[in-house]
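=== RUN LOG ===
request id: a7f3
mode: sequence -> structure
chains: 1
length: 541
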Amino acid sequence: MTLQNTEYLLSELLLNAAEKYPDRPALIFPDSRLTYSQLSALSQRYARAMMGGGLAPGDHVGILTINRPEYIALLFACMLSGTVAVLLNARFRVQELRHAATHCDLKWLFVGHNEDVPHAARLLEALPRLADSGAGASVLTPEAPLLERVVALDAFESPGFTAFADFLDESTLATAEQLDCRQAELVASDTALIMFTSGTTSLPKGCMLTQESVFRTSLAMRNRLGLLTDERMWDPLPMFHMASILPMLSLFHDGGACLTDEKVDIDRAVIQIKQERATFLYPAFPAIMAELVNHPEMKLDQLDHVRLINNIGSAEALRDNMRMWPSATHISAFGMTELSGIASHTDPNDTPAQRAETCGKPYEGVEVSIVQPESGQRCAANEQGEIRVRGFLLLKGYYKQPEETARVIDDQGWFLTGDLGSLDPEGRIQFHGRIKDVLKVGGENVSPLEIEAWLSTHPQVMVAQVVGAPDDRLDEVVAAFIQLKPGATVTAQDIVDYCQGQIASFKVPRVVRFVEEWPMSATKIQRSALREQLLAEAAAE
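=== RESULT ===
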């Protein structure tokens, strides 16, 4: 049954919060903040400007910029106007931008620009005919034939771009009553967002997420974690990523505040966490958490206002975090973009072992099954297989890719994650890595996560990533990329010696590389880039 009116509509989440908590901060940046009433007013103005400019329900609106208050206001403007927000990865380069603009049928595109992240200039490389358009005229881009307007959020002098001030002027062309009528036409099954997969092995796919799937997942997260009305969550992750959008939405149910920044900047983060007395930290990824806890100004014993920390990683790494920061409750999750961000969370009331070793039970209304990929046979408790998920949080499909959609969603509605996992006897998910990341070392299956877990116990290791290195005799061998803690001096042989006698000999790294920075895809370390580095080294020998 289609859910009508305001049930499960993301726009209503903001409007209700603005009515209940008008003066509470919704977004807090280091140098600016918006209350719920301010965010609501700004979003409604942007929505009226979209309507005044001719955007119709279902039209696709791209957003390409760094984290900023306008980003979230534009996101909710799309929700209010019934258009579909297409959140473009800020790391996209020319080929990916061209693909996204064309493949996702963008009607409008909002783009930022600064010296550090020249999105507008990059867009001109992707759509070179854009500069042939007259100032203020309709866009002329054979590369993206449906694109009618590109709005520059910042000063950028080039034909083909509409100034942001001119966009705002169009808000007078649509009334509040017309916006209310547009709202009344929305239904929960409408596509709300198109968000992209990481695209590490191919061009990124656009995941269609509905109003209902994102709303209900945010509510499930809020309920599982017991978020408070005065919650202040630090989450600096990029807003084109569900690890930023979903936690923020979960706060809006009860008027909490999201502390964020233009990008992940640990020096600024430390100041912000302290000054704003953050209660909930959402670093989400091991590399960010490692930088945070090892920062010289992070006096963990003085941060008693932090009650909850969400992170992922090996059990050993999570236990280490718990030991380093015992005053906070550490939780973990399992999810991906196709699952509206998150499918399970550990419960803050779970035991420390359960919170370290599992990703918790699926949210209420979500089913998880562990299946042998080859046979389709369901696995017993603690037996490893592919994690499959079913429920309200599933993507509607990959945009204009029905074959890819059919490949990952079977005829019984199960989403095939491609992740290796198991369920404990009580139904908690245990994550064992990506199936495609499993190494074949002389005929033996080797899980990178198992080796990473052991390496993370080394007192001088901050982050470890394991991939396969080509080998003539064994097909591939274990290669470890290591980021050391500040001031540490460790050799490759020290790493090998640490593993000898502790893990099976075929799991001991044969190749060790030390890194200071990681190749990233949105928020994840790109294993593919690490493998490519090793292949390049082998080819050069």
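=== NOTES ===
The chain has 17 helices and 29 strands.
The longest helix spans residues 36-52.
=== END ===
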